[in-house]
Amino acid sequence: MSTTYADKTASATGKYVGRAVDRVDGPAKTTGEARFAAEYPYPGLAYAALVHATIPRGRLTAVDTAAALAVRGVIDVLTHENAPPMKPAPKVSFLDLSTLVSGTPVNYLATDEVHWNGQPVAVVVAETPETARYAASLVRPAYEELPAAVDFAAEEGNAVPQKGNLISEAAADKGDAPAALATAAHSVDLTFSTPPHHHNAIEPHATTAVWDGDRLTVHEAAQNIAWTRRHLAQRFGVPEKGVRVLSPYVGGGFGGKGSVWAGTLLAVLAARATGRPVRLALTREGVYHTVGGRTPSTQRVALGSDADGRLTALIHTSVSRTGRAGGMGEPITAGTRHLYASPNIHLRQNVVQLDLLANTFMRAPGESIGTFAVESAMDELACELGLDPIELRLRNEPDRDPVGGQRLAHRRLREAYALGAERFGWSTRDPRPGVMRDGRWLVGMGVATAYHPSMRMPANVTVRLGADGTVVVRCGLQEMGMGTATVQAQIAADELGVPLESVRFEYGDSDLPSGPGAGGSAQTASAAAGVLDACDKLRRTLLGLARRVPGSPLRGVRPEDLEARDGGLYHAGRGQTYAEILAAAGRGHVEAESRAGMLGFMVRTLRERRQWVRAATGAQFCEVRVDPDTMEVRVSRWLGVFDVGTVINARTAASQLRGGIVMGIGMALSEQTLIDHRDGRIVNASLSEYHVPVHADIPRIDVQWLNEPDSTMPLGLRGIGEVSITGAAAAVANAVRHATGRRVLDLPITLDKLMG
Amino acid sequence: MTQIRMNVNGSVESLDVEPWVSLLDALRERLGLTGPKKGCDQGACGACTVLADGLRINACLALAVQYDGSEITTIEGVAHPLQEAFVRHDGFQCGYCTPGQLCSAIGMLAEYEAGMPSAVTPPGAGAYELSESEVRERMSGNLCRCGAYNGILDAIMDVAGEEGTR
Questions:
Q1: Record: contact B94-A249, CB cut-off 8 A
Q2: Which member of A7, A398, A508, A756 has the lowest number of beta carbons within 10 Å of its beta carbon?
Q3: Assigned domain for A647 exists
Q4: How many separate domains does chain A show?
Q5: Quick one: A739 and A635 in the same domain?
Q6: What is the average pLDDT score of chain A?
Q7: How far is it, in rounded angstroms, from Cα A724 to Cα A452?
Q8: CA distance B54 to B66
Q9: Band of pLDDT at residue A10, cut at 50, 70 and 90
Q10: Domain boundary among A596, A618, A639
Q11: Residue B37 and residue A661: Cβ atoms within 8 Å?
Q12: Hey, of A36, A691, A695, A725, which one would you mutate to test binding to chain B, going by the most B CBs within 10 A of its CB?
């Protein structure tokens, strides 16, 4: 059935839900006690290092390993000539979503083919990390080179229409947008470009792999534990139940740890080949060479409006790239489908395959760079019309989905802009460009809309209540910094009416009930649905036990009339503690389970997509200061007002929303991966040359939320991991436009683009 | 192999290392102290920050043999009000940069106490406040990709205020 959570949203702010609760993993993370994937000791542990191809495309003709093997302490050097076999990646199927977890279809070391510059072509295993790394530098691959296409700008013309899939369309047409644009009273027609980006989680990907016969234990930095386990079992031809993936703490992912990449597979392979526990911690450069990043893009946004600023035409087309060996077409126009009412809409996504490492999801794939283009274009149209950019957006706020016509589940962008404008002091903005000053600095203020769909994935959860009043919630997901462990414990504590301190959340282990991965901003809502369901079953079980006891004050009480509080179940002031119920029933504990089947999940997802368009939205407000001589841009103030449904933990939610904005500021002003257009080599594969924001770049970031539950989501919550990066780069670009009069169409907004 | 002795978190450790072993790898792989993190191994991210004889350094850029006879403090040896303040102000998300941020902040406060200049405060500027921009500048060698900078700043300002730093 299509569940609505109206009953749950009524009590959305419980004793713990909604409060700013300290993270349960806080002490572990501030004392060094929290261990990450590369930090588990094993007797006889060996260290692996990768050798990367230095050509973009070709075949290995030989790999000279003699010098490496001669180094004292080298255990083995694995190449395509001596590595044990590995099965190819399974074909993608929407009935088994774990098939989505393969980063590329390349079967490392089982092939002599080279598909990108940086592909691992050998693995050195040694007694120490230094030996492995040194010996890896001595391995000499020889190649037969093949022609390669690696230059996005040069190959863009070869892009073909992207194929859509069950949950993401790659095109839309409504009315006749080109004709409407041609006759529009006002119009803008702009071409934007965005560079490749890399996640740059501070923890480089790492794997510690240990075989015991056909049983495999892997300590891994994984955004998806269950899928990783299944994938490893398939690749190495062993039973899934014998594979254990442990990933309690992940040192940042942002999509980069959402797939299984070469390092994971080759660590497991090296452990298989050498019979030793093996640790493979990628170097920072190794992350760039083996883990995909965000595609570059070229985007055209053309907007036509009537004299009052009501859109008559909305055109958004994009070109992105994948690798020839893997990757996914970035859904760049996905957000644009839902943003503005217009009788004529034309959306197209195109994609070109290049001989580069497969691209992958990075925080808000599609919307993050798509909103840069469409929200910059809206700002430019506002300039063209002489209309306030907030007013332009409000005049085009849709009542129903602009393309599909579905109902919008709880959309409060008007309120977000109203609150934001007041709080940010928008009325103090002089709309003329280049006239606001603070001393010598040019000051600019910009806004943009944030948009990210709200999704759910299947999650299995068990909840166990002991006679001593302790609650154990089990779900095989990871704590990557989103506060997952904390918020699920908060939910369980409220659902069962017990103190937060008595709830323990066990996670990070594939032996636990299969948990949802961290992706699509769906993890919290997915796990919450499981926790709610399991707690509901647990209360029913407890009620059943209580009703069997003669004289129980709960006899005759219906489950829906129960109140869980003070460590027990109550109705109309009468009830029993859990300890009393369990004692009377002679039970030491009770346990309940929530299970989600994949087929039912897919059916529900597709049905709901026809019924609703659900999304987290927001209004981003940015103030910049621009040095009039150097054109250096500094972000001086920020406010984001978000409509994200119920907020479970005010503290962790604020941090996550701020984090997206910080990454958005990086995207706006400094982040870009530079690829040598001759040979496809990434030339700035380091944190000293790929510039992520530092302390000095980030001002106070004010984040607010409307805190109105979305009645179509569990507890009324929407995922918040991605929405706040969307619109962020456009808000900066729009503020820069206001400060300087210059519209920068090409990210990042570096000084050179504002000079001359 | 060279034998070195270091006082690490109050206990004297003696170990044999090749001259090319970094202090970070010596701590993590030889002594099992995995609190200092490896984020880049190039001195660009600050995740490996430890205190060497009271000064904050990037352990990945230091050779272990250089620190023979030194006193090294890693996060495992830290007991400082900043730790609790990081939790209270949510100065982290994933937690991977956190040990480095904490050690760096402790070293930074000591540098400030000693009157060390920064890009915000030029040498010889005399008495100055530990302003937010000062802290931001002095902490900019420690990257946090989760973007917890506001919380880290709050935690440092909170503790620095309590300690009555000039």
A1: yes
A2: A756
A3: yes
A4: 2
A5: yes
A6: 95
A7: 9
A8: 15
A9: very low
A10: A596
A11: no
A12: A695
Residues of A marked as catalytic: 722
Q: From A278, A274, A275, select the one nearest A129 (Cα to Cα).
A: A278
Q: Is A687–B40 a contact, with Cβ atoms under 8 angstroms apart?
A: yes
Contact: B147, A661; criterion CB under 8 Å: yes
Q: What is the ipTM of this complex?
A: 0.97
pLDDT mean across residues, chain B: 94
Mean pLDDT of A678-698: 98
Contacts of B39 in chain A (CB under 8 A): 202-204, 284, 687
Residues A577-586: what's their mean pLDDT?
95
Start and end residues for every CATH 3.10.20.30 domain found in chain B: 2-77
Domain B81-163 has CATH 3.40.50.2300: no
Least confident among A1-15, A160-174, A397-411: A1-15
Co-location of A591 and A469 in the same domain: yes
CATH number at residue A22: 3.30.365.10
In terms of CA atoms, which chain A residue is nearest residue B146? A659
Per-residue model confidence as pLDDT tens digits over A365-388: 999 999 999 999 999 999 999 999
Q: Using the CB atoms, write b or e for B59-84: b if 16+ within 10 Å.
A: bbebbbbebeebbbbbbbbbebebbb
Instruction: Indicate if the pLDDT at residue A9 is higher than 50.
Output: no
Which residues of chain A from 272 to 301 reach within 8 Å of chain B, CB to CB? 281, 283-284
Provide the shortest C-alpha distance from residue B122 to chain A (in Å). Answer: 17
Chain A CB contacts of B148 under 8 Å are 655, 658-659
What is the pLDDT averaged over residues A168-197?
Answer: 97
Note whether B151 contacts A655, CB cutoff 8 Å.
yes
Asked if pLDDT for residue A7 goes beyond 50, the answer is no
Q: In this structure, are A699 and A667 located in the same domain? A: yes
- The per-residue pLDDT for A11 is 40
Nearest by Cα to A294 from A753, A693, A748, A735: A748
Domain with CATH 1.10.150.120 in chain B: 81-163
Instruction: Supply the DSSP string of A588-642, one letter for each residue.
Output: SEEEEEE---HHHHHHHHHHHHHHEEEEEEEEEEEEEEE-TTT--EEEEEEEEEE
Q: Would the CB atoms of A22 and B94 count as touching at under 8 Å?
A: no
A596, A611, A631 — which closes off a domain? Answer: A596
pLDDT, one tens digit per residue, over B32-66 is 999 999 999 999 999 999 999 999 999 999 999 99
Shared domain check, A754 and A664: yes
B2-77 — its CATH code? 3.10.20.30
- The pLDDT, as a whole number, for residue A13 is 60
Contacts of residue A698 in chain B, CB cutoff 8 Å? Answer: 136, 147, 149-150
CA distance A99 to A459: 17
Contacting A residues, span 26-85, partner chain B, CB-CB under 8 Å: 26-32, 34-36, 38-39, 41
* pLDDT reported for residue A446: 98
Tell me the backbone φ, ψ of residue A634, rounded to 5 degrees.
-120, 130
Token pair listed for A59? 């075949």
Query: Whole domain around residue A732: which residue ranges?
Result: 386-456+597-756
Dist. CA B45–CA A484, nearest whole Å: 25
* A541 and A440 housed in the same domain: no
Cα distance between residue A478 and residue A26, in whole Å: 15
Stretch among A285-289, A630-634, B34-38, B126-130 having the lowest mean pLDDT? B126-130
Chain B CB within 8 Å of residue A137 CB: no
In a shared domain, residues A657 and A742: yes
- For tokens 């959860």, what's the residue? A461
The answer to whether residues A402 and A541 belong to one domain is no
Q: Does A473 have pLDDT greater than 80?
A: yes
Nearest CB partner across the interface for A29, out of B39, B88, B98: B98
Residue A8, pLDDT > 80, answer no
Q: Are residues A648 and A661 in the same domain?
A: yes
Strand residue runs (E) in A201-291: 206-212, 215-220, 243-246, 278-281
